[in-house]
UniProtKB/TrEMBL annotation:
Source domain of life: Bacteria
Organism: Prochlorococcus marinus XMU1424
An individual GO BP term: protein catabolic process
Protein name: ATP-dependent Clp protease adapter ClpS
Keywords linked to the UniProt accession: Hydrolase, Protease
Cross-referenced Pfam families: ClpS
Length: 105
């Protein structure tokens, strides 16, 4: 957004154009990376794999996500933009772990 502000100087008048940050009207949609219950791999393997694929997860977070998936059938790993969500989900799948992405409401 541009705004024009008139300033009165000692010897003359001048117009100053100010740029103001525009509000983000169309934020990019966010996506949930989901971990599905895994009856094949060990809980330890799933926890380690989560931390390898999503390095910002703490050990406690990875354990909580794994337990959520184990107990409820699905666990929320992370919410992010589409490209990293696809990367995280595909990386988990490449380790033999069931994962999907879903658009956040």
């Amino acid at each position: 957004m541009l705004s024009i502000k008139l300033e009165q100087g000692v010897n003359n008048n001048s117009a100053v154009i100010e740029k103001k940050p525009a509000e983000l009207k169309n934020k990019s949609p966010k996506y949930k990376v989901l971990l599905h219950n895994d009856p094949v791999n060990s809980m330890e393997y799933v926890t380690i794999s989560l931390r390898e694929v999503v390095p910002q997860l703490s050990e406690q977070d990875a354990i909580a996500i794994m337990l959520e998936a184990h107990n409820t059938g699905i666990g929320l790993v992370i919410v992010c933009d589409l490209e990293p969500a696809e990367f995280y989900s595909e990386s988990l799948k490449s380790k033999g772990i069931s994962s999907s992405i879903e658009k956040e409401d």
